[in-house]
Specification:
- The protein has 238 residues and is mainly alpha-helical.
- It has a domain at 73-156: Cytochrome Bc1 Complex, Chain D, domain 2.
- Helices cover 28% and strands 2% of the residues.
- A two-stranded antiparallel ribbon has the order 1-2.
- Strand 1 (54-55) and strand 2 form a beta hairpin.
- The longest helix has 19 residues, at 141-159.
Length: 238
């Protein structure tokens, strides 16, 4: 009875191991070749631009679908969930994580990112960029494009002119809105990089990697002296 109870069925399972041979198939391979005229799950990417943001290996501009108010609202909602911790609600790269010592996030209101094509933002969200990890697992392709569209709206919001609104629309100054919301006068002060932010570049500026297809630029500048963080006990403001 003891001998019968010592079977090895669970130990010696009839299974395949990666990159090992087998006697089950005539060609001796355990890994089977893909059948002709078939597409694996999640690989039917007929619109390559929609899934990569690239055209012939370069970042393309424009959205692969029409931009509507619903698209912008969805982009805002997803942006507020996944992007604000680092980039902040206004997109200046001074989110709460940055204020607590993380690497300086991208400022969408710089000349470099204002001129960047929409495919750049989609590509960065898909594959990551510098200290930013990829968000392909958390954000679907359609939502990544919606976020890219909302980033454009954020950029416009900071430099909008009366000519950018429809004729007859009433536009209130930001100072008036801040007063109505009960915000302090310091709310309208200029942005600044928190002393705790980590730049990681020789010049002390935020990290800027080359776009796909461009060569990286090197610099021999000496590292900028880092300013000591203030320990005044004040609560960081967003």
């Amino acid at each position: 009875m003891a001998t019968v109870g010592c079977r090895q069925d669970m130990h010696d399972q009839p299974k395949f191991f990666p990159q090992r041979g087998t006697t089950l198939y005539a060609d001796g391979r355990s890994v089977r070749p893909q059948s002709a005229n078939t597409v694996a799950r999640s690989q039917l990417h007929q619109d390559s631009y929609f899934y990569t943001g690239l055209v012939d290996g370069k970042e393309g501009d424009g959205l692969p679908f029409p931009v509507t108010e619903e698209v912008l609202k969805r982009g805002q909602e997803r942006y507020n969930v996944y992007c604000t911790p680092c980039h902040s609600r206004v997109g200046n790269g001074e989110g709460m994580i940055v204020q607590r010592g993380y690497a300086k996030a991208g400022d969408f209101h710089t000349a470099r990112l204002e001129s960047a094509p929409l495919g750049h933002f989609f590509h960065v969200m898909t594959y990551g960029y510098g200290a930013m990890p990829e968000y392909a697992a958390q954000v679907s392709p359609v939502d990544r494009w919606a976020i890219a569209a909302y980033i454009r709206a954020l950029q416009l919001s900071q430099k909008a002119q009366p000519a950018d609104v429809p004729t007859g629309s009433h536009v209130e100054p930001l100072s008036t809105i801040a007063e109505q919301e009960g915000l302090p006068a310091t709310f309208l002060q200029g942005w600044h990089v928190p002393a705790t932010a980590v730049t990681g570049t020789p010049t002390g500026e935020p990290l800027a990697l080359p776009a796909p297809g461009e060569s990286a630029k090197t610099t021999s500048a000496q590292p900028a002296p880092r300013q000591p963080a203030s320990n005044s006990g004040e609560t960081p403001k967003q």
